[in-house]
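quick one, two chains, predict together pls
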Amino acid sequence: GAGVSQSPRYKVAKRGQDVALRCDPISGHVSLFWYQQALGQGPEFLTYFQNEAQLDKSGLPSDRFFAERPEGSVSTLKIQRTQQEDSAVYLCASSLRTEGGTQYFGPGTRLLVL
Amino acid sequence: AQSVAQPEDQVNVAEGNPLTVKCTYSVSGNPYLFWYVQYPNRGLQFLLKYITGDNLVKGSYGFEAEFNKSQTSFHLKKPSALVSDSALYFCAVRSLYGGATNKLIFGTGTLLAVQP
């Protein structure tokens, strides 16, 4: 079956531009996560949705970062007024269960801010 | 604070030899532990997890991991390495804080290089 998909795969933005990153989770998966992976580092948690409810956004680095999942399926991570330090790979993961389920990751979106 | 440590940035092993990638954790309560593998320009692929039960967990591609509560370790192992196993390996623990959050806390990764 289809896995988690993300688009675009690569994004180059000029400093100050807004960007939107899309995640299509595995069909039927209740939980959705966003992670940020800087070069040479492990992924770091950004935010978590259970269906359409954003239950944890403690990892969002600033108020320039905003995520939504309005219908409990597709999610969008938006970064406003991008800065060079936002350059990273943004990974989306989904999980069938809400408690301890395995998270399945998409291929990521590599964002480069110039 | 909850954390995961992967003490080796890189592990080198000859093809056919056994491999071990080390992971230790610090968490309150019973941990949920995971191993993922990442190939270049790809997302993370799930290998195996420990929730409860047998301390030896078997996963994909012949990998296994041993949960050791007294040593707070969850080392990844494979009896015979393949060149195609060369990749970046991440250990992760599920956070027990934040209410309903099941976020993962990742280690910094270990690059496995298998020489032919």
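Chain A touches chain B through 32 residues (CB under 8 Å).
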